[in-house]
Task: inverse folding
């Protein structure tokens, strides 16, 4: 190993690159072309970090590895020949895709892509461009139905959101916690059912089992309050499913039952928690839609982006910053009776007319610390964040983790948080009641490893609970015990379990340990531990894994030292998991720095939506 390959291997040893990135580079170039080796390794690393593309303007000596290990970065840059013109470096590269040669890397404008991600991004961009066309019911009918369901008010953005979705084939509705996304979609579906003479095939879906169960429950509650007839009520979908189940994911393969050649059988699709939908899943979903389908995407654009590549919801919602076109604003004003502003900025992408941003929270009032803190964090306003934390709100608490004593005190508080759940187990309560109790308190972590991460805290929480005799782990090294919560980390469609599903280990009627999982339809499935796909203990879970869930009391633990993974979006997502109570275990400076750091997912979707 010599030259650039050896330098990239050093970077991998320092965890600046993954071994996979170096191997990928070696497949596409060799030490005779050091700049290409560097480019391929960086592109692979970017994809691993969730970016869709590598803008060539971002690649410079000082930007390499985000300024870390500058000496090695400078040596690598020098070995690459201090490139000035990347287009010249790749012009005759066999690994570069062209109109007459399929290859793994694509250069589009000034952005370098893995072919798969370039293809997916193009699919998504073309879909949202083509869907930005009106699908009309008679305006008078729409106005009458919306007035029946929403009433008449000058600034009802839930009503405007429903009007957007009724007059477009595809709509995107984004709003924070408590802004009424579920209420809006319940009334929207009622309007569609009322306006459509034919029986509509409506499907509800979400990225995870937990999110699907929540959508089923919350939509069911919203439906009970609607002024709809029994006949209309029966036309509502009974339950939500996961996107994997919806598309018919095949066990142990990447194959899907539904795709462009075998589209889904539906007329209306509602996708909740759309911020969690990565670029690949979005491309698969839209490929499987039949031509007549209406789609409504619901989500919170300010939450963490998907685990896999892309920030699709965030990119699309950026198009809304231009406001509605003048013609669209007039149409929405006439249909809703609300004052909707518009402008004639002709360069704005047409998809802006398919988006509605809900801004008013009905859950958190002026006395809610959670609401004020979430709003301040989302704005990146350090003074407002500190004011919310210092104001003495009863629903938020910040506790520093500055020594071993504070850490032990935190473990004791976490054990107390889970005690009501464990008490129900000791009382042999019904599994459904036990599962519901587990969802009332949850510890979230920013990291996976270390004493402040999921793995370290799961071990320490187990030790604390054993010490307090709240759980009993068997001798002989088995990890299974009554009360153990587990999270599935790999899809198993044969079992009907998917990544993110949470189950509780309990004795069944025959005295055997089983893991009980709540399903989206409200039923419970008991699975033998030995049959489970890959899984983790879930006393603590990452903030990413908590998306799509809410808890009465949410606790967030952050590491003692600042790390780049600690971002505004991560903290906002954690805060907004809390319904009634939030506890922050964090150093003040670490928290403040995280609020200032925004997540940047590099992609070309916004430019492609704009026709660039």
Result:
């Amino acid at each position: 190993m010599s030259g650039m390959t050896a330098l990239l291997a050093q970077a991998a040893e320092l965890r600046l690159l993954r071994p996979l990135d170096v191997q990928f580079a070696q497949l596409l170039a060799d030490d005779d072309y050091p700049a290409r080796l560097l480019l391929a390794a960086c592109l692979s690393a970017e994809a691993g970090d969730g970016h869709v593309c590598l803008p060539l303007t971002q690649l410079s000596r000082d930007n390499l590895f985000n300024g870390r290990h500058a000496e090695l970065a400078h040596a690598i840059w020098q070995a690459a020949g201090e490139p000035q013109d990347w287009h010249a470096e790749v012009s005759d590269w066999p690994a570069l895709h062209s109109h007459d040669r399929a290859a793994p890397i694509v250069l589009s404008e000034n952005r370098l892509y893995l072919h798969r991600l370039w293809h997916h991004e193009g699919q998504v961009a073309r879909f949202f461009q083509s869907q930005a066309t009106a699908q009309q019911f008679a305006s008078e009918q729409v106005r009458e139905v919306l007035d029946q369901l929403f009433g008449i008010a000058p600034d009802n953005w839930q009503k405007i959101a429903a009007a957007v979705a009724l007059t477009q084939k595809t709509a995107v509705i984004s709003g924070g916690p408590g802004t009424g996304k579920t209420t809006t979609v319940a009334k929207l579906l009622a309007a569609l059912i009322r306006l459509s003479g034919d029986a509509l095939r409506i499907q509800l879906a979400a990225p995870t089992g937990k999110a699907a169960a929540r959508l089923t429950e919350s939509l069911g509650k919203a439906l009970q309050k609607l002024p709809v007839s029994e006949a209309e009520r029966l036309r509502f979908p009974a339950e939500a499913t996961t996107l994997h189940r919806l598309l018919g994911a095949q066990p142990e393969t990447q194959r899907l039952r539904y795709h462009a050649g075998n589209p889904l059988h539906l007329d209306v699709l509602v996708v909740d928690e759309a911020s969690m939908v990565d670029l690949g899943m979005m491309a698969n979903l839209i490929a499987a839609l039949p031509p007549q389908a209406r789609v409504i995407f619901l989500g919170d654009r300010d939450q963490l982006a998907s685990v896999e590549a892309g920030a699709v919801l965030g990119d699309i919602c950026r198009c809304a910053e231009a406001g509605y076109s003048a013609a669209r604003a007039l149409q929405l004003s006439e249909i809703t009776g609300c004052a909707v502003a518009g402008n004639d900025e002709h360069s704005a992408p047409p998809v802006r007319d398919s988006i509605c941003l809900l801004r008013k929270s009905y859950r958190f009032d002026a006395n809610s610390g959670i609401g004020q803190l979430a709003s301040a964090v989302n704005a990146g306003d350090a003074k407002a964040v500190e004011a919310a934390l210092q104001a003495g709100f009863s629903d938020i608490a910040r506790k520093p983790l500055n020594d071993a004593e504070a850490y032990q005190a935190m473990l004791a508080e976490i054990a107390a948080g889970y005690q009501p759940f464990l008490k129900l187990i000791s009382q042999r309560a019904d599994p459904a009641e036990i599962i519901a109790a587990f969802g009332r308190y949850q510890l979230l972590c920013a990291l996976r490893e270390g004493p402040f991460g999921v793995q370290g805290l799961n071990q320490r929480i187990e030790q604390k609970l054993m010490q307090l005799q709240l759980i009993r782990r068997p001798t002989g090294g088995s990890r299974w015990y009554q009360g153990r919560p587990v999270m599935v980390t790999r899809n198993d469609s044969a079992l009907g379990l998917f990544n993110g599903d949470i189950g509780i280990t309990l004795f069944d009627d025959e005295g055997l340990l089983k893991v009980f999982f709540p399903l989206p339809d409200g039923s419970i499935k008991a699975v033998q531990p030995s049959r489970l796909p890959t899984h983790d203990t879930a006393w603590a879970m990452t903030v990413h894994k908590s998306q799509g869930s809410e808890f009465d009391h949410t606790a967030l633990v952050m590491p003692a030292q600042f790390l780049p993974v600690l971002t505004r979006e991560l903290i906002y997502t954690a805060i907004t998991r809390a319904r009634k109570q939030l506890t922050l275990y964090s150093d003040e400076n670490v928290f403040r720095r995280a609020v200032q750091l925004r997540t940047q997912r590099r992609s070309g979707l916004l430019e492609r939506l704009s026709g660039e």
